[in-house]
Amino acid sequence: MSQPRRRTAATRVKAEYQHVVDFLEERAPIWQERMGLGHFEIEHHYLDTGSGLLLGASPKNRPAGIRCSFGATGDLTYTACVETRWNYQTADVYFFLASAVLWDNKRLDEILVHEYTHILTAVEQYLLETKLEEVASAEEMASTEFGILAQFYYDRMEMATENAARAIYAGWKGK
Ligand SMILES: [Zn+2]
Questions:
Q1: Structural domain tally of the chain?
Q2: Ligand 1 ion local residues (Cβ < 5 A)
């Protein structure tokens, strides 16, 4: 018998966020199956806060391997992010509920697909990050210069991810 490949970190969330968690938990196994991610072990983490605590103020301080979905502004800038260890076929998705609660279910569904698309393309992202590290160490870049270059790469990675996510979402419209 096969083991379940998805887990939810044991977390208690504020009552006003519970409907967000319930919706995402209902949709997650559906998208995992549709997107061919059944062989991945995906763990969901639900945080009561905005994204500031986990991600830091600037993209440069963000832990490697983490990509995000945009939310509103400030500490609510990111609604979710994902950390993928593609070589072990595991991923952790973090949902920042103070931001997530601002969206309706359709948008939450799109965000879920976006994060899972990052899991699909994690190998490409790894290449990008390796290349960035190489460039930074070879050229002894100033941190502002590095920040600009990193943003340049990440913006394109995000756009490619969002394009793919929209195509996937459109294919299942209304289902
Ligand atoms: Zn993203």
A1: 1
A2: 67, 158
